[in-house]
Structure formats: structure tokens, C-alpha cells
Specification:
There is one protein chain. This protein has about 325 residues and is mostly beta strands. The protein folds into 2 domains: about 1-230, Acetamidase/Formamidase-like domains (Jelly Rolls); about 245-320, Endonuclease I-creI, CATH 3.10.28.20. Helix content is about 10%, strand content about 35%. The protein has 3 helices and 21 strands. It has helices spanning about 115, 255-275, 280-290; strands at about 1-5, 15, 20-25, 30-35, 65-75, 80-90, 95-100, 120-125, 140, 145-150, 150-160, 165, 170, 175, 190, 200-205, 225-230, 240-245, 245-255, 295-300, 310-315. The protein has a 9-stranded mixed sheet.
Amino acid sequence: MQRITREQSRKYAFDWRDEPLLRVKCGESFEIETYDASTGYFKTPEDKAIPSKRPGFDRTPPTANPIGGPVFLEGAERGDTLVVTLEDILVDDYSWVAIGPRRGPLGESTRWPELSGDYTTKIFKHTPGPSGTTRDGTLHFSDKLSWPITPFVGTLGVCPDREVVTSLDGQGAWGGNLDIRDFAVGNKLYLPVYHPGALLYLGDVHASQGDTEFTGTAAETKSTVRLHLEVIKKKRVPYVRIEKPNSIISIHADKPLEIAVETATVSLMDWLVTDYGFTPTDAYCLVSTCPDFRIHVYQMCKIGKLCYVAGAEIPKKYLG
């Protein structure tokens, strides 16, 4: 099986000028070994998020959030849709979260000075599950709190049409640092293709996270991701889409949050009309009346240029 190694997964931009590290065929499984978002800096609680001590933080924006790629899919062309199927995510034996002064929305808090007065790094041990691996393992938040490891890919996308954007704060219809917990095993992701081969990158795997990644970091970890790619010819999705076994989700990133929510919902309506035969009237009324319609706020970090990421979801049982 072809693989991008961890040391190769130290790119910090979605750059269409990069030479592909892999060339794969439709349906061919391959692996990408990923670093954590700190490129291995955080190993113990003594490793603080002090910018002057962190490699790459003398640059603007910092060289953080490494990704592996690009992967060239044979047959993919501009105007197509790339279909990414995540087959497996095997995380490392620990993850971390880091907070401190001027980091995240409470990095200047006066209500809780401990959040803004000092740097704190928490290391979470991962223990294997019945399989003997972390695939069904447990994340230990503390001596009293633990939960199942629920990994997903935080940063995933193809190269944008004309720009070169960083993996730290780049976002768009093509993907990027979106921190969507539904970029998980068993789900399919749909992305527009702008360049021959699609040129896929991914990294920034989280061992677990709820909605928003409120501090600016989640349970950041190293991993090995197995996936395969396919292509839908001569059809381009307007923005990232997700297909789960039992539902579909339309994604949008923007500010303010209500714009992201409204656009994701309108994009879901367009999906219903274009692919599932709904009239615009029925699609409009469905998202206002269906008791299982959901809005997700996947990422809402007040950090740099990051926009807020919303998803509009409807179960497949309503699609006819």
C-alpha cells in the first residue's frame, strides 16, 4: 500500500505548485501518516505554548498545523468532484490541548485569571480497546473523566483555484482547516476539483472534540489515516459536502456565524433540489418543519482569520 510518511507530512500550505507525493488510481487505498498540530512539540505538561519557544512561531502566520500531500488522483480534472472515503484512523498513544495568554476567546480573561495569566498544557493518555489498538480505545482526560476515542481529520482539502493558503487558517469551498468532527471513518467527503489530479492534502487529526474547538486546540494527536479517492466527472459541488451512512450534510464557513448557518442551509436545499428531485418550495419548507433537521457549529474559534464553520444536516430517510 502506498503511504506518505510522517516526516513527509510537514507541509504548511495548500500549494498547487508542490510535486505530488503520491499518484493513486480511483478506489486505491493509501495511507497518510500525520503529525499533530504542533509538529511534535507538545509531549509533556512542561511543554508550554509560549510562542518564543515554539519552532515556526517566528513566522507570520506560524508554521503550525502540518499536512501531508499532495495526492494526485488519476483522471480527476478541473470541474469534477472529488469523493474522499475515510477508511480508518489510528491515533497515537496520547493527545494534548494547550491554553494560555492571548490564546483563544478567553486568553485575556479577567473573570478567570488562570486562563490568561499562565500557559497550561494537558496531556491525555490513550489506552487500547478490545482490539488491542486505539481504534476502539479510551481517552483519559483525568483520573475521573474518560471517554471513547472518536478521531477525525481536522484539516483536509484540495488546492484552491489560484491562491496558495496556509494549513493554519486557510478555509474555503475546497476545504481547509475546518475541524469538522464528521470528517470521520465511514463517511464520504465531496470537494470541488480545481487542478488536474485534485491535489489532496490532509492532517491535523483530533482524538476527540465536540463542536466549536472553543479553546483553539482539541485533543491533538499524531495518526495514520487510510482512505481512498474517487471522482464524479463533470460535476462540481459548490462547497464541501459530507455523506454519512444515514444522512447528508452541507458545509459553509463564514463570519458572522448566522451567515455560515444560512448559507449551509441554502446549499443543502440546492442539494435536495438538484440531486433528489425536491421542488424549491418543498426543500424550503422541509428545513423549517422536519424534526430531524440539524444545524452543527463545528468550529467557532476567535483565532486569526478563521471563519465559523456550520453544517446543515438532514437524514436520508426524508430524501425519498
